[in-house]
Amino acid sequence: MKVLLLGSGGREHALYWKLRKSQRVSDLRAFPGNGGFPEDSLIAGLNLSDLPGLRRHVEQERYDLVVVGPEDPLVNGISDALSSVCPVFGPRAAAARLEGSKAFSKDFMERHGIPTAASRVFEAIGPALEYCEGLEPPIVIKADGLAQGKGVVVAMDRQEAEQALRDRLERDRFGEAGRRVVIEEFLPGEEASVFAICDGVRALPLLASQDHKRAFDGDQGPNTGGMGAYLPVPMMDAAVMQTVQEQVLDRAVAGMQADGHEYRGLLYAGLMIHEGRVRVVEFNVRFGDPETQALLPLLNEDLGELAQTAASGRFAPNRTLNFHPGAALVVVLAADGYPGSYKKGIELKNIDSAESDIIFFHAGTRREGGRILSTGGRILGLTALGSGLRNARERAYARLEKVVAPGTFYRKDIGVKALQ
Ligand code: AMP
Ligand code: GLY
C-alpha cells in the first residue's frame, strides 16, 4: 500500500523507520519529515493546518493510508477531513478531545469510571483561588488546551498556585488554551506510559515505557517534551498491566464507543503508579516522544498492518502484540538552552550507525548538502538495544560520547532509577 506519514519529530522518524520494514508498505512518503528521512521520500508544499489542501493531495496521490504523528492536526480534525478519501491512523476530532481538552478528558474519565485524580474546572479567577484555599499543597494546575507540555504546574505552595492561575486566567499567558483551568489533586507515585493501538472496539497495549520529562539529571530543571526513555519498566508487571487494560484502556475505548466516537489510532495513557494502584495523569491521542523511539525497535510486528487494521478494520478478538526480548533505551540530545531559547544551525557529526542495535532517530534536524544541521531544541534521539537495561544503557552512552555536536547536552541518568 501507499502510505503518507505526517510529522517531523523523533517520533515520526521512528515511525518511518518501522513502517519501512512493513511487508504491506510498498511506497512510503512523509511530510514535512526532517534531516533523517531519505530526501526522495519527502513531499514539499503541503501545510498541516490546511485540511482542504491535504485532502486534495491525498485524493490525487491515491494513498491507501495516512498515519498522523502529532496531536495538533488530530485535534483540529484531520481524520474527519480525510476520512472520505482515505483511512487515517489517528482518532477523529471528537475523540481527540481526550488530549485537546483536559476538562473534557477529566469529565470523560469520571463518566466512564477510569481512575484519575479528583479535579475541578474553573474559568474565573475568584472561584479558582477560593477553591485552592481549601487544598493542601502540592496543588496541580493545568491549562485546559494544548500547550506543548508546558501548561501544567505542580505548585508547592498556595502562592505558586495563585501565580499559575493568574498566568492562565488573567494574564493570558497560554492564550485560548489557558482560558479554562483544571485544578487537581496531587498524585504521589512513579510515572509510566502505556500506549495501545485501537481499532474502535479493542485496545492492544504495547510494552510500558518510562519517559524523563525534566531537562536535567536527577529530575531537576524545567519540564520538557521528554529527554529520554526506556523499557521494560520493572514496576509495570503483569498484574499492573492487567489493571491498566481493564480499568484504563478497555474503559476508554468502550467509553468512546458509548459516546458515539469510535477510537481508531494510538491511545497514550500517562499513568501514575502508587503501591500497585493505577491512576491516569493524562491521555494523549498519538505516540509519545521520545518513548516511541525506544518502543518501536522492540516491537516484533508489522506496523503497516497494525496501522491499517486500526484505521479501517478490526483486530481478531484474541490478537496480542509480540515484542523482541531485551531492553531499549533512548537518550535525547538537545540544544543548550532547551526548553527555553536555543541556537539553531549546530552541525552534527558522527551520527550514522551501521549496527542494527544502535539507531539514530532525527528530530530537529535538516540536511544541507552533505551536512546535518539542527533546527530544533530536541535534535535527535539515540536508541540502543541490549539484552537488559544495564547493557542498553551502557551502549547508548558509549556511542553518544562519540557524537560531535558543540552547544548541545543530554541527560546522563536515563534509566538509572530502574536499575537501583
Ligand atoms: P500532563 O501534561 O497532564 O501529563 O502533566 C505533566 C506532568 O505533570 C506529568 O507528567 C506529571 O509529572 C505532572 N503531573 C500532572 N498531573 C499530576 C498530578 N495530578 N499529580 C502529580 N503530578 C502530576
Ligand atoms: N513524552 C511525552 C509525550 O509525548 O507527551
Could you explain the architecture of this structure?
Strands 11, 14, 17, 19, 22 and 23 form a 6-stranded antiparallel sheet that branches. Strands 2-1-3-4 form a 4-stranded parallel sheet. It folds into 3 domains: 2-90, Rossmann fold, CATH 3.40.50; 118-185, ATP-grasp fold, A domain (Dna Ligase, domain 1), CATH 3.30.1490.20; 190-419, D-amino Acid Aminotransferase, Chain A, domain 1 (2-Layer Sandwich), CATH 3.30.470. Helix 5 crosses helix 6 and helix 7 (125-133) runs antiparallel to helix 8. The mean pLDDT is 96. With 420 residues, it is α+β, with helices and mostly antiparallel strands. The protein has helices at 10-20, 51-61, 71-75, 78-82, 93-100, 102-111, 125-133, 158-169, 238-258, 291-295, 303-312, 389-400, 416-419; strands at residues 2-7, 27-32, 65-68, 88-89, 119-122, 139-143, 152-155, 181-185, 190-200, 203-205, 210-211, 214-216, 220-223, 228-231, 263-274, 277-284, 327-335, 347-348, 358-362, 365-368, 371-374, 378-386, 408-409. It has 13 helices and 23 strands. Adenosine monophosphate binds at residues 117, 140, 142, 149, 152, 154, 184-187, 191, 213, 270, 281-282.
